[in-house]
Amino acid sequence: MGESMGINKGYKTGIRYDWFVVPSIKLSEALFIRRNNFFPKLIVNEACAYTTDTMHRVFMRQGVNINAFVASFYNSLSLAFSEISGRSYGGGVLELMPSETEKILLPHKEENESLLHQIDQMMRTNKSIDEILKITNEQILKKGYGFTDKEIKLADSIWKKLSARRLNRSR
Q: What is the pTM of this model?
């Protein structure tokens, strides 16, 4: 049926020997969304969703707490490094390839795990990233790593300036 519809002649399907087989289907502990609008997203794969190439798979080293790792990502410093490391495409899309994600500074601490549920709930109820960052910057950067209010404000302003520049290019 697919061949009668010409599906086998599509771009991706046309270059495969078995055009109907999707390659590289894997299950990972977390997912880093490859292309983003307002800010990049790192999520725990609680649904055990398999992925192809629309997201980056995140596999944890043994002994690393996935919940603490993911929660540690949501702070102004990591978001600023995402903008610095990634690239911008039409419409203001931020894309990060695997080699670029490795350059993101991640202030990881086990205690950050306690923030994950709150971050998740705030995202699910469409709270702004600024509301989330008020909490995470305080807990992760200030209390966890001793950043001053001035340093946090600087990291936040760098992220906001770079993301606004990217998003304004789409207009």
A: 0.85
